[in-house]
Specification:
- It holds the Pfam family DUF4440.
- This is DUF4440 domain-containing protein.
- It comes from Subtercola boreus.
- This protein has 148 residues and is an alpha+beta fold.
- 32% of the residues lie in helices and 37% in strands.
- Strands 2-1-6-5-4-3 form a six-stranded mixed β-sheet.
- About 11% of the residues have low confidence.
Length: 148
């Protein structure tokens, strides 16, 4: 993955097929797929159009979602959905730069994503925990910390 969270065009499954034991290729392919899907879902949550659509946000947030905001406030899923629907996103996320994404499996079907986000309000280091469910990936936890 490059700093934008995308796989290089020249990276193909056959490049690691010869070094893998039977069954490992499928597991590596699945891991890369999940990594890309987690990053894609996080980027959707940063999209101003998605953020202003309560149904789209609810589809991405787990029912047990919690967020610790930059002020230290703890947000629940209903509070976050309502707050995002009323925000003026044009000043904060229209021109944002998503970089240095890293996805780590914490447990089966549970993934930690960390990344940097530069926007009009500055640079933040962000972390999200995503759960794989029958309905798709859902964000369980998020925290953003402003960098000095």
């Amino acid at each position: 993955m490059d700093e934008r969270g995308e796989l290089p065009a020249e990276r193909r499954e056959h490049e690691f097929r010869g070094a893998a034991a039977p069954g490992e290729v499928d597991e590596l392919s699945r891991a890369e797929h999940v990594e890309q899907a987690v990053i894609l879902c996080e980027r959707r949550l940063l999209d101003p159009v998605v953020r202003l659509d309560p149904e789209a946000v609810e589809a991405l947030l787990d029912p047990e979602f919690r967020e610790i905001g930059q002020s230290g406030r703890l947000w629940s899923r209903p509070e976050m959905v309502a707050a995002l629907a009323t925000l003026d996103m044009s000043s904060t996320l229209d021109a944002h730069e998503f970089s240095d994404p890293r996805v780590e499996a914490l447990a089966p079907e549970l993934y930690l994503l960390t990344y940097l986000l530069r926007s009009g309000s500055g640079l933040t280091r962000r972390s999200s925990i995503w759960r794989e469910t029958e309905a798709g990936l859902r964000c369980v936890f998020h925290q953003g910390t402003r960098l000095a």
